[in-house]
Amino acid sequence: MTYEQWREARLNEIADKAKVVAKGTVTGTARLPGVAGEWRVTGEGALTYDGAEVVGTVELPGGRTAMAGGADGFFGVVVTDPKAWERSGLRGIDTYPYDPGWVFEGEFRATPERHVEVDHLTALRTTQAVHAPVDLAVTINGTEYVLTVLETMPGQRLVVFTDETNGAGTPDIGRWLVLSPREPGTRFTVDFNQATLSHHHIAPAIFTCPAAPSGNHLPMRVEAGERALVHDLKVKATTYLRHLENREWTEARAMCSAEATVWHNDGKGDSTIGENIAGMEAQIEPIASMRYDVTRQFEQPGEVLQQHVVNVESKDGGIFKVDAAVYFRFENGLITRIEEYAGLPG
Predict the structure, then answer these.
(1) What percent of the chain has pLDDT over 90?
(2) Neighbour order of strands in the sheet with 287-300
(3) Which of 140, 168, 204, 266 is deepest in the core (most CB within 10 A)?
(4) Which of 278, 271, 270 is nearest to 249 (CA)?
């Protein structure tokens, strides 16, 4: 496969991942965040959705599809929405120019059977033991580096590494090298031009990926491979508002960084994104419907400024509108700051 073919395949992979709107495991009775309906494992060990047995795939409300797999009372479920790619605002992947100087020879080295404790990128970071069957030894500029290799799924070897570009050219959580299984001692090509972003960047609430194991840091700037996802930020700003309209609080929160802040011209100062969304959820009960009509948007790198009208209908029949201007700031595709200047209801 040529480098150009690999990049095209990567974009297709990203598009498929962006269609995933929920995933989880079912061992008893469960509900997936943002997905209506109940999943249950029967006494006979079969998986059901709202009482109907599931074999392979099942169609869900809203044009979504759930794919399930497993046995013996343990099932994994992945829910996809064909429209989620469009709503994501993803347009491509920014990469460093291809550089043959970042192609090296490496080998897997046998290690004692082991699991290593690795942080995972959950909302509150958790640590899990992950199978690490081999190490990757690679010599860069005359120095040998030995990196821990994770096996997060059968048939895939994953090197999660950090380097000196993190936070200054690439994401601070590091990047991936996805490698095929080989016997220890086998020498093969290690191409850092194929260093990728983790799936966590596409949907942080869904893909809670592993962080780099201790020791997997390269003390240099690896200016090769993927740098960032490219988004149409105007689409992302609008998608965030659509989640609020539909009371999809979890999905709205997932579009924001953990440190995101919100400011309103009400004299109360900043709030966290969690406090802001919780406040909206607490006040939504008397409202029958809410719609944001965007009248204009302006975008520059990392920022969107827009005007919109909030149309609200209350359950007692009241109708009013609010004119507003909103500023969004983004980093690595996530909202980090919202500032809203709202007028009086009319």
Answers:
(1) 58
(2) 270-272, 256-264, 334-342, 319-331, 303-314, 287-300
(3) 204
(4) 278
The Cα–Cα gap between 80 and 55 comes to 16
Q: Taking a C-beta distance cutoff of 8 angstroms, is the pair 4, 49 a contact? A: no
Tell the residue number behind the tokens 């909030």, with chain if given.
310
CA distances for 47 relative to 20, 26, 37, 70, angstroms: 20, 8, 13, 9
The span from the CA of 322 to the CA of 344, in Å, is: 6
The CA distances from residue 126 to 10, 31, 58, 129, 216, in Å, are: 28, 22, 31, 10, 18
pLDDT tens digits along 173-197: 899 999 999 999 999 999 999 999 9
Contacts (Cβ under 8 Å, ≥6 apart) of 322:
309, 310, 312, 342, 343, 344, 345, 346
- Residue 267 class from Cβ within 10 Å (0-12 exposed, 13-18 middle, 19+ buried)? exposed
Q: Give the C-alpha separation, 71 to 337, whole Å.
A: 44
Residue 46: φ, ψ to 5°: -90, 160
**Long-range contacts at 38-44 (CB < 8 A, ≥ 24 apart):** 39/75, 39/77, 41/73, 41/74, 41/75
Global confidence as pTM: 0.71
> Which helix (H) or strand (E) covers residue 277, if one does?
helix 273-283
Residue type, 41: V
